[in-house]
Amino acid sequence: MSDNFRRSPCPVAGILDIVGDKWTLLVVRDLFAGKQTYSEFQKSPERIPSNILADRLKRLLEYGIIEKEPYQTRPVRYRYALTGRGRELGKVLKAMVAWGEKHIPGSRSVIKP
Asked: Which residues of the chain have a pLDDT value below 50?
């Protein structure tokens, strides 16, 4: 990540610059849950708008959190997967899941990263 995009040298601020909005973390959550394609992400219960989904996938690709490969040529469609760097976010999501299940009544996880 370029220093031009960083708010400060704080690692918390740095990670928030990359994945610090609801939609980005939900896309990462869906990848851990086994979703791979654009249409699968759009079927999530949170109903991410298509323009936001396209932007978040682009951002995650830029930062090396995910990678993509074509699975269809006409029209070209891509399958997305977490990189090693992206899989390391599983620890963060697991901590968030544990906290949410403990402190948010009625919450339940669709994944166990």
From this structure: 1-3
Task: Quickly count: other Cβ atoms within 10 Å of residue 17's Cβ.
Answer: 14
| 25 CB burial (10 A radius; 0-12, 13-18, 19+) | middle
pTM of the model: 0.87
Helices (H) and strands (E) in the chain, counts: 6, 2
Q: Give the dihedral sign, CA 16/100/82/58.
A: negative
The C-alpha atoms of residue 97 and residue 109 are separated, in whole angstroms, by 7
- CA–CA dist 6, 13 (Å, integer): 8
Give the count of beta carbons closer than 10 Å to the beta carbon of residue 29.
21
Report d(CA 39, CA 75) in Å as an integer: 14
Of 83, 91, 84, nearest in space to 113 by CA? 91
pLDDT in tens, 47-76: 999 999 999 999 999 999 999 999 999 999
